[in-house]
Design goal:
Shape: rod-shaped
Distance between the termini: 85 Å
Structural class: mainly alpha
Number of strands: 0
Oligomer: single chain
Order of helices and strands: H
Largest sheet: none
Radius of gyration: 25 Å
Length: 58
């Protein structure tokens, strides 16, 4: 009885560990996308600022 319970607990644990690994991978991919977008946003803000400054000189 107790061995069966331990076996069932091990099965559930292995399932949840697998899900946790998948979720961790998804989160890492999303964070990579966020960082890429933040970098592009900074570049575009800088480009926009530069265009505003050079427009006044013309």
């Amino acid at each position: 009885m107790i061995e069966e319970l331990y076996a069932e607990i091990d099965n559930w644990r292995s399932d949840y560990i697998h899900l946790a690994q998948e979720l961790g991978q998804i989160i890492n991919e999303q964070q990579d996308i966020i960082l890429k977008l933040q970098k592009e946003n900074r570049r575009l803000k800088r480009e926009n600022w530069n265009l505003k400054k050079t427009k006044g000189r013309r």
